[in-house]
Design brief:
heterodimer, A: six-stranded antiparallel beta barrel, six-stranded antiparallel barrel, 4 helices, B: mainly alpha, 2 domains, 8 helices, about 70% helix
Chain lengths: ~300, ~200
Protein backbone atom coordinates (compact mmCIF):
# COMPACT_ATOMS: atom_id res chain seq x y z
CA UNK A 1 0.00 0.00 0.00
CA UNK A 2 2.79 2.35 1.05
CA UNK A 3 4.98 1.41 -1.92
CA UNK A 4 2.02 2.01 -4.18
CA UNK A 5 1.64 5.53 -2.78
CA UNK A 6 5.33 6.27 -3.26
CA UNK A 7 5.26 4.94 -6.82
CA UNK A 8 2.16 6.99 -7.59
CA UNK A 9 3.71 10.15 -6.18
CA UNK A 10 6.90 9.67 -8.15
CA UNK A 11 5.00 8.87 -11.33
CA UNK A 12 2.90 12.04 -11.05
CA UNK A 13 6.00 14.13 -10.35
CA UNK A 14 7.82 12.66 -13.34
CA UNK A 15 4.76 13.19 -15.54
CA UNK A 16 4.49 16.87 -14.53
CA UNK A 17 8.19 17.50 -15.16
CA UNK A 18 8.05 15.75 -18.53
CA UNK A 19 4.96 17.73 -19.58
CA UNK A 20 6.69 20.98 -18.56
CA UNK A 21 9.81 20.07 -20.54
CA UNK A 22 7.77 19.09 -23.60
CA UNK A 23 5.86 22.38 -23.43
CA UNK A 24 9.09 24.35 -23.00
CA UNK A 25 10.81 22.64 -25.90
CA UNK A 26 7.81 22.83 -28.21
CA UNK A 27 7.07 26.47 -27.40
CA UNK A 28 10.68 27.57 -27.71
CA UNK A 29 11.06 26.04 -31.15
CA UNK A 30 7.76 27.34 -32.52
CA UNK A 31 7.07 30.43 -34.57
CA UNK A 32 4.66 33.17 -33.41
CA UNK A 33 1.76 31.72 -35.43
CA UNK A 34 2.08 28.14 -34.16
CA UNK A 35 -0.63 26.20 -32.22
CA UNK A 36 0.80 26.78 -28.72
CA UNK A 37 1.12 30.50 -29.37
CA UNK A 38 -2.43 30.55 -30.73
CA UNK A 39 -3.74 28.80 -27.61
CA UNK A 40 -1.82 31.28 -25.46
CA UNK A 41 -3.25 34.18 -27.45
CA UNK A 42 -6.77 32.76 -27.04
CA UNK A 43 -6.39 32.37 -23.28
CA UNK A 44 -5.02 35.91 -22.96
CA UNK A 45 -8.00 37.21 -24.95
CA UNK A 46 -10.42 35.40 -22.63
CA UNK A 47 -8.56 36.52 -19.50
CA UNK A 48 -8.14 40.15 -20.47
CA UNK A 49 -11.62 41.32 -19.30
CA UNK A 50 -11.04 39.62 -15.94
CA UNK A 51 -7.60 41.18 -15.61
CA UNK A 52 -8.98 44.57 -16.60
CA UNK A 53 -11.73 44.28 -13.98
CA UNK A 54 -9.24 43.18 -11.34
CA UNK A 55 -6.86 45.98 -12.30
CA UNK A 56 -9.61 48.59 -11.86
CA UNK A 57 -10.93 47.06 -8.66
CA UNK A 58 -7.48 46.84 -7.07
CA UNK A 59 -6.32 50.31 -8.15
CA UNK A 60 -7.00 51.80 -4.67
CA UNK A 61 -4.75 49.15 -3.12
CA UNK A 62 -1.98 49.92 -5.60
CA UNK A 63 -2.42 53.63 -4.99
CA UNK A 64 -2.23 53.14 -1.23
CA UNK A 65 1.11 51.33 -1.47
CA UNK A 66 2.30 53.81 -4.07
CA UNK A 67 1.40 56.68 -1.75
CA UNK A 68 3.94 55.66 0.90
CA UNK A 69 6.78 55.54 -1.60
CA UNK A 70 5.64 58.66 -3.39
CA UNK A 71 5.46 60.71 -0.21
CA UNK A 72 9.00 59.76 0.75
CA UNK A 73 10.30 60.81 -2.64
CA UNK A 74 8.10 63.87 -3.09
CA UNK A 75 9.98 66.26 -0.82
CA UNK A 76 13.35 65.52 -2.38
CA UNK A 77 11.92 65.77 -5.86
CA UNK A 78 10.21 69.08 -5.09
CA UNK A 79 13.52 70.78 -4.25
CA UNK A 80 15.19 69.31 -7.31
CA UNK A 81 12.33 70.37 -9.53
CA UNK A 82 12.33 73.92 -8.20
CA UNK A 83 15.99 74.28 -9.09
CA UNK A 84 15.36 72.68 -12.44
CA UNK A 85 12.40 74.97 -13.13
CA UNK A 86 14.52 78.06 -12.59
CA UNK A 87 17.11 76.80 -15.04
CA UNK A 88 14.48 75.80 -17.56
CA UNK A 89 12.74 79.16 -17.45
CA UNK A 90 15.94 80.72 -18.72
CA UNK A 91 16.22 78.13 -21.44
CA UNK A 92 12.60 78.49 -22.55
CA UNK A 93 13.11 81.98 -23.81
CA UNK A 94 16.00 80.85 -25.95
CA UNK A 95 14.05 77.85 -27.22
CA UNK A 96 11.03 79.93 -28.17
CA UNK A 97 13.20 82.05 -30.38
CA UNK A 98 14.78 78.90 -31.85
CA UNK A 99 11.34 77.32 -32.41
CA UNK A 100 10.12 80.34 -34.28
CA UNK A 101 13.17 80.26 -36.50
CA UNK A 102 12.85 76.50 -36.91
CA UNK A 103 9.19 76.76 -37.99
CA UNK A 104 10.11 79.35 -40.57
CA UNK A 105 12.95 77.22 -41.90
CA UNK A 106 10.83 74.04 -41.98
CA UNK A 107 8.04 75.76 -43.86
CA UNK A 108 10.66 77.02 -46.27
CA UNK A 109 11.85 73.45 -46.80
CA UNK A 110 8.28 71.98 -46.69
CA UNK A 111 9.06 69.59 -43.79
CA UNK A 112 6.72 68.23 -41.07
CA UNK A 113 6.61 70.33 -37.92
CA UNK A 114 6.62 67.32 -35.65
CA UNK A 115 8.15 63.87 -35.83
CA UNK A 116 5.02 62.42 -34.24
CA UNK A 117 2.59 64.12 -36.61
CA UNK A 118 2.04 60.96 -38.65
CA UNK A 119 1.08 58.92 -35.57
CA UNK A 120 -2.31 58.29 -34.08
CA UNK A 121 -2.02 58.34 -30.28
CA UNK A 122 -4.15 55.64 -28.60
CA UNK A 123 -4.49 56.06 -24.85
CA UNK A 124 -4.76 52.61 -23.26
CA UNK A 125 -5.04 51.25 -19.74
CA UNK A 126 -2.35 49.07 -18.13
CA UNK A 127 -4.03 45.85 -16.95
CA UNK A 128 -1.15 43.55 -16.06
CA UNK A 129 2.51 43.18 -15.40
CA UNK A 130 4.79 40.14 -15.02
CA UNK A 131 5.82 39.39 -11.48
CA UNK A 132 9.52 38.91 -12.16
CA UNK A 133 10.89 42.14 -13.63
CA UNK A 134 14.58 41.41 -13.20
CA UNK A 135 14.93 39.85 -16.63
CA UNK A 136 11.52 40.48 -18.20
CA UNK A 137 9.98 43.94 -17.94
CA UNK A 138 6.69 44.20 -19.76
CA UNK A 139 3.19 45.63 -19.43
CA UNK A 140 -0.13 44.29 -20.63
CA UNK A 141 -2.55 46.90 -21.99
CA UNK A 142 -6.23 46.72 -22.89
CA UNK A 143 -6.00 47.41 -26.64
CA UNK A 144 -4.90 45.03 -29.33
CA UNK A 145 -4.92 44.40 -33.05
CA UNK A 146 -8.65 45.20 -33.30
CA UNK A 147 -7.77 48.76 -32.21
CA UNK A 148 -5.06 48.98 -34.87
CA UNK A 149 -2.15 48.22 -32.55
CA UNK A 150 0.73 46.39 -34.22
CA UNK A 151 3.95 44.76 -33.07
CA UNK A 152 6.70 47.38 -33.07
CA UNK A 153 4.47 50.38 -32.31
CA UNK A 154 6.23 52.81 -29.94
CA UNK A 155 4.66 53.51 -26.54
CA UNK A 156 4.96 56.75 -24.52
CA UNK A 157 3.66 58.08 -21.19
CA UNK A 158 4.21 61.15 -19.01
CA UNK A 159 5.87 62.82 -22.01
CA UNK A 160 8.59 60.17 -22.18
CA UNK A 161 9.33 56.94 -24.00
CA UNK A 162 8.04 53.75 -22.34
CA UNK A 163 8.84 50.99 -24.84
CA UNK A 164 7.37 49.21 -27.83
CA UNK A 165 4.60 46.72 -28.52
CA UNK A 166 6.06 43.21 -28.67
CA UNK A 167 3.01 40.92 -28.71
CA UNK A 168 -0.55 41.54 -29.84
CA UNK A 169 -3.85 39.71 -29.39
CA UNK A 170 -7.18 41.05 -30.73
CA UNK A 171 -8.02 42.71 -27.41
CA UNK A 172 -4.70 43.17 -25.60
CA UNK A 173 -1.08 43.95 -26.30
CA UNK A 174 2.18 43.45 -24.41
CA UNK A 175 4.61 46.35 -24.21
CA UNK A 176 8.31 45.62 -23.73
CA UNK A 177 9.66 48.47 -21.63
CA UNK A 178 12.93 50.29 -22.26
CA UNK A 179 14.03 48.78 -18.93
CA UNK A 180 13.74 45.22 -20.28
CA UNK A 181 17.20 43.65 -20.77
CA UNK A 182 16.32 42.85 -24.39
CA UNK A 183 15.55 46.49 -25.16
CA UNK A 184 17.99 48.76 -26.94
CA UNK A 185 17.10 52.25 -28.18
CA UNK A 186 19.23 54.42 -30.38
CA UNK A 187 19.54 57.59 -28.32
CA UNK A 188 20.79 61.13 -28.76
CA UNK A 189 22.04 63.36 -25.95
CA UNK A 190 20.95 66.99 -26.30
CA UNK A 191 24.28 68.40 -25.18
CA UNK A 192 24.89 70.75 -28.04
CA UNK A 193 26.99 68.25 -30.00
CA UNK A 194 24.09 65.76 -30.28
CA UNK A 195 26.20 62.73 -29.30
CA UNK A 196 24.48 59.45 -30.08
CA UNK A 197 24.60 56.05 -28.41
CA UNK A 198 22.63 52.97 -27.50
CA UNK A 199 20.27 53.12 -24.51
CA UNK A 200 20.23 49.92 -22.41
CA UNK A 201 18.97 49.18 -18.89
CA UNK A 202 21.53 48.74 -16.15
CA UNK A 203 21.43 45.13 -14.94
CA UNK A 204 20.19 44.86 -11.38
CA UNK A 205 18.82 48.39 -11.28
CA UNK A 206 16.34 48.56 -14.16
CA UNK A 207 15.37 52.17 -13.52
CA UNK A 208 18.97 53.23 -14.12
CA UNK A 209 19.40 53.40 -17.89
CA UNK A 210 22.75 53.60 -19.62
CA UNK A 211 23.56 55.38 -22.85
CA UNK A 212 26.44 53.31 -24.17
CA UNK A 213 28.81 53.54 -27.14
CA UNK A 214 29.18 57.29 -26.70
CA UNK A 215 32.29 59.11 -27.94
CA UNK A 216 34.99 58.85 -25.25
CA UNK A 217 35.46 62.60 -25.01
CA UNK A 218 31.81 63.64 -25.29
CA UNK A 219 30.92 66.65 -23.15
CA UNK A 220 27.84 65.49 -21.29
CA UNK A 221 26.51 67.05 -18.10
CA UNK A 222 23.98 66.02 -15.47
CA UNK A 223 20.40 67.01 -16.47
CA UNK A 224 21.13 66.86 -20.21
CA UNK A 225 18.04 65.49 -21.96
CA UNK A 226 18.24 62.19 -23.87
CA UNK A 227 15.87 61.61 -26.81
CA UNK A 228 15.40 58.84 -29.35
CA UNK A 229 18.00 58.96 -32.09
CA UNK A 230 15.93 58.13 -35.13
CA UNK A 231 18.45 56.19 -37.17
CA UNK A 232 19.11 52.59 -38.13
CA UNK A 233 22.02 50.41 -37.03
CA UNK A 234 22.71 46.80 -37.90
CA UNK A 235 22.06 45.53 -34.32
CA UNK A 236 18.60 47.06 -33.90
CA UNK A 237 15.19 45.83 -34.96
CA UNK A 238 12.02 47.77 -34.22
CA UNK A 239 11.07 51.35 -34.77
CA UNK A 240 10.85 54.49 -32.63
CA UNK A 241 10.25 57.96 -34.01
CA UNK A 242 13.10 60.43 -33.53
CA UNK A 243 13.26 63.07 -30.79
CA UNK A 244 10.91 61.41 -28.30
CA UNK A 245 12.20 62.33 -24.81
CA UNK A 246 13.59 59.34 -22.92
CA UNK A 247 15.19 60.72 -19.78
CA UNK A 248 17.70 62.99 -18.11
CA UNK A 249 21.36 62.32 -17.44
CA UNK A 250 21.83 61.57 -13.73
CA UNK A 251 25.51 60.70 -13.71
CA UNK A 252 28.17 61.65 -16.26
CA UNK A 253 31.53 60.62 -14.86
CA UNK A 254 34.36 61.60 -17.26
CA UNK A 255 36.35 58.51 -16.18
CA UNK A 256 33.42 56.18 -16.82
CA UNK A 257 32.83 57.92 -20.13
CA UNK A 258 36.45 57.46 -21.13
CA UNK A 259 36.65 53.80 -20.08
CA UNK A 260 33.11 52.43 -20.64
CA UNK A 261 31.79 55.11 -23.03
CA UNK A 262 28.55 55.40 -21.03
CA UNK A 263 26.49 57.79 -18.91
CA UNK A 264 23.56 57.07 -16.56
CA UNK A 265 20.03 58.23 -17.36
CA UNK A 266 16.79 58.29 -15.35
CA UNK A 267 13.65 57.76 -17.45
CA UNK A 268 11.18 60.65 -17.69
CA UNK A 269 8.16 58.35 -17.55
CA UNK A 270 7.46 56.81 -14.13
CA UNK A 271 7.76 53.23 -15.36
CA UNK A 272 6.80 51.60 -12.06
CA UNK A 273 3.50 53.42 -11.58
CA UNK A 274 1.87 53.51 -14.99
CA UNK A 275 -1.92 53.29 -15.17
CA UNK A 276 -2.26 54.61 -18.73
CA UNK A 277 0.12 54.74 -21.68
CA UNK A 278 -0.16 56.03 -25.24
CA UNK A 279 0.56 53.77 -28.19
CA UNK A 280 1.78 55.63 -31.26
CA UNK A 281 -0.04 53.87 -34.05
CA UNK A 282 1.58 54.81 -37.32
CA UNK A 283 0.30 54.40 -40.87
CA UNK A 284 0.71 50.79 -42.05
CA UNK A 285 4.05 50.05 -43.61
CA UNK A 286 5.55 53.31 -42.42
CA UNK A 287 9.19 53.14 -41.62
CA UNK A 288 10.36 56.53 -42.78
CA UNK A 289 12.73 58.32 -40.43
CA UNK A 290 11.96 56.30 -37.31
CA UNK A 291 14.64 55.07 -34.93
CA UNK A 292 15.38 51.43 -34.31
CA UNK A 293 14.90 49.35 -31.20
CA UNK A 294 16.45 46.02 -30.86
CA UNK A 295 17.36 42.84 -29.16
CA UNK A 296 21.09 42.41 -29.15
CA UNK B 1 -22.12 11.06 -1.76
CA UNK B 2 -20.93 13.23 1.09
CA UNK B 3 -17.48 11.68 1.00
CA UNK B 4 -17.29 12.33 -2.74
CA UNK B 5 -18.12 15.99 -2.25
CA UNK B 6 -15.45 16.24 0.47
CA UNK B 7 -12.92 14.69 -1.92
CA UNK B 8 -13.50 17.47 -4.43
CA UNK B 9 -13.28 20.26 -1.86
CA UNK B 10 -9.49 20.53 -1.79
CA UNK B 11 -9.00 20.57 -5.60
CA UNK B 12 -11.79 23.14 -5.98
CA UNK B 13 -10.39 25.40 -3.30
CA UNK B 14 -6.88 25.08 -4.71
CA UNK B 15 -8.12 25.84 -8.25
CA UNK B 16 -9.86 29.00 -7.02
CA UNK B 17 -6.81 29.96 -4.95
CA UNK B 18 -4.47 29.50 -7.92
CA UNK B 19 -6.70 31.43 -10.31
CA UNK B 20 -7.16 34.42 -8.03
CA UNK B 21 -3.49 34.41 -7.02
CA UNK B 22 -2.34 34.80 -10.62
CA UNK B 23 -5.01 37.36 -11.55
CA UNK B 24 -4.36 39.53 -8.48
CA UNK B 25 -0.59 39.12 -8.89
CA UNK B 26 -0.60 40.32 -12.50
CA UNK B 27 -3.26 43.01 -12.08
CA UNK B 28 -2.13 44.63 -8.85
CA UNK B 29 0.67 43.14 -6.77
CA UNK B 30 3.26 43.12 -9.56
CA UNK B 31 2.81 46.88 -9.90
CA UNK B 32 3.71 47.49 -6.26
CA UNK B 33 7.38 48.09 -5.59
CA UNK B 34 8.86 47.40 -2.15
CA UNK B 35 12.50 48.45 -1.53
CA UNK B 36 12.95 48.74 -5.29
CA UNK B 37 11.78 45.22 -6.16
CA UNK B 38 8.49 43.81 -7.37
CA UNK B 39 6.60 41.58 -4.99
CA UNK B 40 5.82 38.07 -6.26
CA UNK B 41 3.41 36.07 -4.13
CA UNK B 42 2.84 33.10 -6.44
CA UNK B 43 5.88 31.01 -5.29
CA UNK B 44 4.91 31.77 -1.69
CA UNK B 45 1.37 30.52 -2.25
CA UNK B 46 2.67 27.36 -3.97
CA UNK B 47 5.07 26.71 -1.08
CA UNK B 48 2.28 27.28 1.45
CA UNK B 49 0.03 24.78 -0.35
CA UNK B 50 2.88 22.25 -0.38
CA UNK B 51 3.46 22.75 3.35
CA UNK B 52 -0.22 22.37 4.15
CA UNK B 53 -1.38 19.71 1.70
CA UNK B 54 1.70 17.61 0.96
CA UNK B 55 4.07 16.93 -1.88
CA UNK B 56 1.65 15.60 -4.49
CA UNK B 57 -0.98 18.37 -4.20
CA UNK B 58 1.91 20.85 -3.91
CA UNK B 59 3.53 19.66 -7.14
CA UNK B 60 0.23 19.57 -9.08
CA UNK B 61 -0.74 23.01 -7.76
CA UNK B 62 2.71 24.35 -8.64
CA UNK B 63 2.46 22.97 -12.17
CA UNK B 64 -1.03 24.45 -12.70
CA UNK B 65 -0.17 27.88 -11.28
CA UNK B 66 3.11 28.01 -13.21
CA UNK B 67 1.41 27.09 -16.46
CA UNK B 68 -1.28 29.71 -15.85
CA UNK B 69 1.38 32.36 -15.16
CA UNK B 70 3.23 31.45 -18.38
CA UNK B 71 0.03 31.55 -20.44
CA UNK B 72 -1.36 34.74 -18.92
CA UNK B 73 1.92 36.65 -19.24
CA UNK B 74 2.85 35.30 -22.68
CA UNK B 75 6.08 33.77 -21.41
CA UNK B 76 7.78 30.62 -22.65
CA UNK B 77 5.42 27.81 -21.60
CA UNK B 78 6.84 25.37 -19.07
CA UNK B 79 9.46 27.62 -17.46
CA UNK B 80 7.48 28.79 -14.44
CA UNK B 81 5.60 25.48 -14.11
CA UNK B 82 8.89 23.57 -13.92
CA UNK B 83 10.12 25.85 -11.12
CA UNK B 84 6.83 25.80 -9.22
CA UNK B 85 6.61 21.98 -9.38
CA UNK B 86 9.91 21.85 -7.50
CA UNK B 87 8.75 24.46 -4.96
CA UNK B 88 5.42 22.74 -4.25
CA UNK B 89 6.97 19.27 -4.13
CA UNK B 90 9.89 20.38 -1.97
CA UNK B 91 7.68 22.14 0.57
CA UNK B 92 5.39 19.11 0.67
CA UNK B 93 8.27 16.71 1.25
CA UNK B 94 9.50 18.88 4.10
CA UNK B 95 6.11 18.51 5.73
CA UNK B 96 5.99 14.77 5.15
CA UNK B 97 9.53 13.98 6.28
CA UNK B 98 10.12 16.49 9.09
CA UNK B 99 6.60 17.49 10.09
CA UNK B 100 7.95 20.91 11.17
CA UNK B 101 6.03 22.49 14.01
CA UNK B 102 7.99 25.69 14.55
CA UNK B 103 5.99 28.82 13.80
CA UNK B 104 8.75 30.33 11.67
CA UNK B 105 9.01 27.39 9.27
CA UNK B 106 6.75 29.10 6.67
CA UNK B 107 9.12 32.10 6.76
CA UNK B 108 12.16 29.96 5.97
CA UNK B 109 10.25 28.00 3.35
CA UNK B 110 8.97 31.27 1.81
CA UNK B 111 12.50 32.66 1.60
CA UNK B 112 13.75 29.44 0.02
CA UNK B 113 10.83 29.38 -2.44
CA UNK B 114 11.42 33.00 -3.47
CA UNK B 115 15.14 32.36 -3.85
CA UNK B 116 14.54 29.26 -5.94
CA UNK B 117 11.94 31.01 -8.13
CA UNK B 118 14.04 34.17 -8.68
CA UNK B 119 17.38 32.48 -9.29
CA UNK B 120 15.78 29.62 -11.24
CA UNK B 121 13.81 31.98 -13.48
CA UNK B 122 16.94 34.04 -14.16
CA UNK B 123 18.97 30.93 -14.98
CA UNK B 124 16.24 29.59 -17.27
CA UNK B 125 16.08 32.94 -19.06
CA UNK B 126 19.85 32.90 -19.51
CA UNK B 127 19.64 29.36 -20.88
CA UNK B 128 16.85 30.39 -23.25
CA UNK B 129 18.98 33.13 -24.73
CA UNK B 130 18.30 36.34 -22.76
CA UNK B 131 21.68 38.01 -22.75
CA UNK B 132 22.33 40.15 -19.70
CA UNK B 133 25.56 40.50 -17.74
CA UNK B 134 25.48 39.26 -14.15
CA UNK B 135 26.48 42.04 -11.77
CA UNK B 136 26.50 42.76 -8.05
CA UNK B 137 23.46 44.95 -8.57
CA UNK B 138 21.54 41.97 -9.94
CA UNK B 139 22.61 39.88 -6.96
CA UNK B 140 21.54 42.68 -4.63
CA UNK B 141 18.13 42.76 -6.29
CA UNK B 142 17.83 39.00 -5.87
CA UNK B 143 18.72 39.24 -2.16
CA UNK B 144 16.19 42.04 -1.58
CA UNK B 145 13.53 40.02 -3.44
CA UNK B 146 14.22 37.03 -1.14
CA UNK B 147 13.95 39.24 1.96
CA UNK B 148 10.66 40.72 0.80
CA UNK B 149 9.40 37.20 0.03
CA UNK B 150 10.40 36.04 3.51
CA UNK B 151 8.56 39.00 5.07
CA UNK B 152 5.37 38.13 3.22
CA UNK B 153 5.61 34.38 3.75
CA UNK B 154 4.02 34.21 7.19
CA UNK B 155 0.89 36.29 6.49
CA UNK B 156 0.40 34.50 3.17
CA UNK B 157 0.78 31.10 4.82
CA UNK B 158 -1.86 32.06 7.36
CA UNK B 159 -4.17 33.25 4.58
CA UNK B 160 -3.68 30.07 2.50
CA UNK B 161 -4.22 27.97 5.61
CA UNK B 162 -7.51 29.72 6.29
CA UNK B 163 -8.62 29.12 2.71
CA UNK B 164 -7.81 25.42 2.55
CA UNK B 165 -8.65 24.70 6.20
CA UNK B 166 -11.27 22.02 6.57
CA UNK B 167 -10.55 20.40 3.23
CA UNK B 168 -7.07 19.10 4.12
CA UNK B 169 -6.71 15.32 4.48
CA UNK B 170 -4.92 15.70 7.82
CA UNK B 171 -3.26 18.48 9.72
CA UNK B 172 0.15 17.43 11.09
CA UNK B 173 -0.01 19.84 14.02
CA UNK B 174 -3.52 18.80 15.00
CA UNK B 175 -2.54 15.16 14.68
CA UNK B 176 0.49 15.57 16.95
CA UNK B 177 -1.36 17.69 19.50
CA UNK B 178 -4.10 15.10 19.70
CA UNK B 179 -1.55 12.33 20.26
CA UNK B 180 -0.09 13.99 23.33
CA UNK B 181 -3.13 15.68 24.89
CA UNK B 182 -5.44 12.69 24.69
CA UNK B 183 -2.98 10.46 26.47
CA UNK B 184 -1.78 8.76 23.31
CA UNK B 185 1.71 7.36 23.09
CA UNK B 186 4.60 9.47 21.88
CA UNK B 187 5.78 8.50 18.38
CA UNK B 188 9.12 7.62 20.01
CA UNK B 189 7.46 4.85 21.96
CA UNK B 190 6.21 3.08 18.84
CA UNK B 191 8.96 3.50 16.28
CA UNK B 192 7.94 0.64 14.03
CA UNK B 193 4.41 2.01 13.54
CA UNK B 194 5.71 5.54 13.12
CA UNK B 195 8.09 4.50 10.38
CA UNK B 196 5.57 2.23 8.76
CA UNK B 197 2.81 4.84 8.56
CA UNK B 198 5.02 7.75 7.48
CA UNK B 199 6.00 8.51 3.95
CA UNK B 200 9.44 8.05 2.52
Amino acid sequence: MYDKQVRRRRAVLALLVVVSLILLTAYFGESAGSPLHSVQRGVVTVLSPIQEGASRALKPVRDLFGWFGDTARAKKERDQLRAQRDRLLQQVVGYQVALQENAQLRSTLALDKSDLQGYDKRTVRVIGRPSNNLLLDRLEVDAGSSAGVRVGDPVVADGGLVGHVSFVTPSTAFVTLITDPSSGVSAKVLNGAGDTGLLKPSVGDPLDLLVQLLPRHARIAVDDVVVTGGFRTSRLESLYPPNVPIGRVTKADPEELASDQQVHVAPIADLRHLDFVQILVGPSGSSGARAQVGTP
Amino acid sequence: MNRGAEGYQLPLRLAALGFFTVVIQTAAISQITVFGVTVDVSPLVVASVGLLAGSLPGAVFGFAVGLFVDVALVQTLGVTSLLFIAIGYGAGRLRELRDPAHGLVPLAVGAAATAFATVGFSLMQFMLGVRAPVSWLLLRQVVVTILVGALLALPLYTLVRRIVQGSLPDDPRRRRRRAYTTGGLSPLQRPSRSIGSGSR
